[in-house]
């Protein structure tokens, strides 16, 4: 018997302001998979993620979570299954780190209900996994972008979600915070079985971390398969409209990808 995919889309389309942003997108994501979504600017990557997060609801077609229509699932139930990690730029919420991460337990409590010892334990574990427990009493506005990104991840982990949805999570982060973030995501994926769907522009990170890659071009699916297959032939050149060089190395199973010729 074939297992029900955690995410399934079929003929997913969306038109915004008279422009077709997504057209007949279909793919599945199994439990425990790490799927990276790539493509040139304007391909529809962030719009697709916003549909998966239920931020954008003006789509047509099929979009299911664990075999159920996404639109039929109540928000609290959805939040117990899926968590969205936004980018860390923009206005900061006016809370301390501890207050913000504790809000991640909202799917399990009414607005005026106190957190239980179980809730507080989940919050503590989430902050430890994200490495932000030392910031618990600091206000979010005092943290760097990389530190805030890890706090946003901690709040999502506090939800207990089995699916993480991330929109370019390493954008605006320095190298150290990129490494810390990806190390945490890999541990959650490989050790805890968390399903990860991430929009990403870094092809080397994508090919090094992903189980599968979904490439969009002009709102449609250009490629859906393993990272190694993405690097075959002229797929990258066709996707992005620019030449790429591939450098083999013993440090990783897939070549290092460099945009440009003669490298």
UniProtKB/TrEMBL annotation:
Domain ABC transporter intervals: 7-243
Superkingdom, natural source: Bacteria
Molecular functions per Gene Ontology: ATP binding; ATP hydrolysis activity
InterPro entries, A to Z: AAA+_ATPase, ABC_transporter-like_ATP-bd, P-loop_NTPase
Entries under Pfam families matching the protein: ABC_tran (PF00005)
SMART domains on file: AAA
SUPFAM superfamilies (UniProt xref): P-loop containing nucleoside triphosphate hydrolases
Biological role: Part of the ABC transporter complex HmuTUV involved in hemin import. Responsible for energy coupling to the transport system.
Name of the protein described by the UniProt record: Iron(3+)-hydroxamate import ATP-binding protein FhuC
Biological source species: Kiritimatiella glycovorans
